[in-house]
Structure formats: structure tokens, C-alpha cells
Amino acid sequence: MPLKNYLSVLMLLQLFVSSTIQAQTIYGVSNEKKIYRINEDYTSTYLSTAGPTPFLIGDIAISPTGVMYGVAQNSIYQINPQTGQTTFIVELPPCCYVSLVCSNDFELYMINSSQKSLYKYNLLTNTITNVAYLGFYTSGDLTFYKGNLVFQTWSDDGSVYIVKAYNLASGNLVDILCHPGYFQLWGLTTKYNSCDSGTILAINPNNELLDMNFEDQTFTELPFVFPSTEVLYGLASTNEYLGSLCTSQELEDLACMLSIDDFKKNKVTLYPVPTDGQLYLGNIDAVSNIWIYDMTGKMVKKQSGQSIKEIAVSDLVKGIYLLKIENDEGTFIKKFVKK
């Protein structure tokens, strides 16, 4: 028997065995490359530190045979969660990836942030495929939901955060959750029970573990216990791959961009953009608080006052930032470039 066919049969046999005995386990990877197990009571247990890798592990995924994989920059590694030992698998088209999930067909899906495209890597055939141009990037994870791949992104001006669903059968891309304002999700995974039941878990930059409900646009914060000195980047479940077996449903498109209050969206002005030192606010009064976040979701600056009209940003490094503005009328989000 050819070696490739033998390996395929072996992995399918492992799949049969593991699917009958494997308990569902949630894992996370932190900004220090540390692998954690998330327990049923929402405590966390440190297992190992992944290495060696030249970059941080942006996300992890679990194959049907229980093997853990991680993506670091544009490389895929196999990870032993008990020892942290990593083995290089393949280099992906540049550059950069922070999302990863594995299907029942042993295919790793990931979004190329610079190309805004969905890729997949087949573990059995060692092939890389550009699946689709999404037109959106993500700073977070991917998971399966009713036969769709879901991920988070945001509008160009940062005024609304969106969870999108890509239908693997039809190629349709729709909005399934709208959140007007800063609401970033890094890790996403599924505690799979069946195609019609289960739990979608998400982790945000504040290490808040959320139970997401896409049916009614709500979420519940869970009593998660995690070291305050670290941040979880990605999540993965040992049964997450089963979601890829569900029939792809055409989900309702909430059209988040059309549902934003246009007055709030367009009222506030910010100039000059790009800027190299000072930002000025227009068409808004009595600003009491401002926060600036980088594109990883980290707060890099906060300013409070009675009527803020200008913000000094000369101390920020070059890049794209989100400015969150608060006054008596509510909260507004604007994006700017520091040059």
C-alpha cells in the first residue's frame, strides 16, 4: 500500500477510536505561548509552554485524532500540550494568521489577515488551498456554527464589531452578530453536543470568557479563573471538528453596517488623519473620557476631563488605532492612523 494511503487509513482508524472514547476538552494558548486546559468549573490548568517557535502562537486547533496544531505568524506547528514540544509542519503564504480550526476532513482553516482571504491546509494531502476572498480580516479565532465558519471583524471606521458566518457550501458571507462599539473577541470555540445544540465560547482581551448566543444576539460572562498576568489568544475544543459535519444552513443576514445609527456613526469628526502628533475632535461636546486601543485590543492610552477637544498621540508608535470617545450622548468609536 502506498505510504500516503497507509497514513490516511491509519488516521481514519485513529478517528474512529478517538471519537468513541475522547472526552470533550477545551484548551487555550496565551501570549506567553503557554497551553492551558479550561476545566468544567471554568478554572484553568497550566499544562506546558510551546516551543521552540520564532513567533507567538496566535491560535490552536485540535484534529479529529486529538492532535493539537498551532499557527505562529505564517507557519503551522504540531504541539504536544503535555510537554510543549512543537514540530514544524508547513509554511503558509505570507503573511499573517491568528485564526485556526480543524474540520472532520483533517483540514485546517485560517484567515490570512493581510490578504483578507480564507485558506485551508489538508493534513492528509499536505496541500494548501485559497478557499475564498472574504474582504475582511480578523484578530481572533474561527469556529464552526451550523455548517458555517464564524469569525469576528469590524467596520472600517471601527464603529461596529461584527461576527460573520461563511457558508462552506454556498460561499455566502453574512453578519450574525452586530455590536455597535468596541467588542473584540480573540478566541472562539465550540463545545459541541449536536448540530442543533452546544455552546459557543469566546474569550476577549480582558480574559472574560463569554457564552455566545447567536440566536438572540446575547452573551453571558462565565466565572472564568485565569492568571491576571497573561492574555489568552486562542481557544480550541477536542470535539470542535464535529461542527463541520453539520449541514450548512443559510443564516439570516443582519446587515450590521445598515443597522448602525447613521447619526452616531457620522456625527463625530477626527482630524488630521493620519496624524503625527495631535488629534482634534469635531462635532461633539462635553467629552469626558477617551481610550485608545491598538489593533490587538490592548488599551495604550486613556484621558479624562470635562470637555476634551484634543488628544496628544506623539508618544504612540506608527500604526492603526481605535479611539473610543465617551460623553453624555453615548460612546463613539473612530479609527485613526499614527504616521
Structure description:
- About 6% of the residues have low confidence.
- With 339 residues, the chain is mainly beta.
- The strands form 7 sheets. Strands 3-2-1-20 form a 4-stranded antiparallel sheet, with no helix packed on it. Strands 4-5-6-7 form a 4-stranded antiparallel sheet, with no helix packed on it. The chain has a 4-stranded antiparallel sheet with strand order 8-9-10-11, with no helix packed on it.
- The chain is globular.
- The protein contains 3 helices and 27 strands.
- This is Secretion system C-terminal sorting domain-containing protein.
- Keywords: Signal.
The fraction of residues in strands falls at: over 45%
| Secondary-structure content class | mainly beta
Report mean pLDDT, rounded to a whole number: 87
Distance between the termini: 59 Å
How does the overall form come out from the CA principal axes? globular
What quaternary form is this? single chain
Q: Gyration radius, to the nearest Å?
A: 21 Å
Please write the string of helix (H) and strand (E) elements: HEEEEEEEEEEEEEEEEEEEEHHEEEEEEE
pLDDT < 50 runs, ≥5 residues: 9-22, 261-266
Kindly list the characteristics that best describe this protein.
globular, four-stranded antiparallel beta sheet, 9% helix, 339 residues, mainly beta
At a glance:
This protein has 339 residues and is mainly beta.
Give the SSE map.
Blueprint: H1 3-21, E1 26-30, E2 34-38, E3 44-49, E4 59-62, E5 68-72, E6 75-79, E7 86-91, E8 101-102, E9 107-112, E10 117-122, E11 127-133, E12 142-145, E13 148-154, E14 161-167, E15 173-179, E16 187-194, E17 197-203, E18 209-213, E19 218-221, E20 232-237, H2 256-259, H3 262-267, E21 269-271, E22 278-282, E23 289-294, E24 299-304, E25 310-312, E26 319-327, E27 330-338
Antiparallel strand pairs: 1-2, 1-20, 2-3, 4-5, 5-6, 6-7, 8-9, 9-10, 10-11, 12-13, 13-14, 14-15, 16-17, 17-18, 18-19, 21-22, 22-25, 23-24, 23-26, 26-27
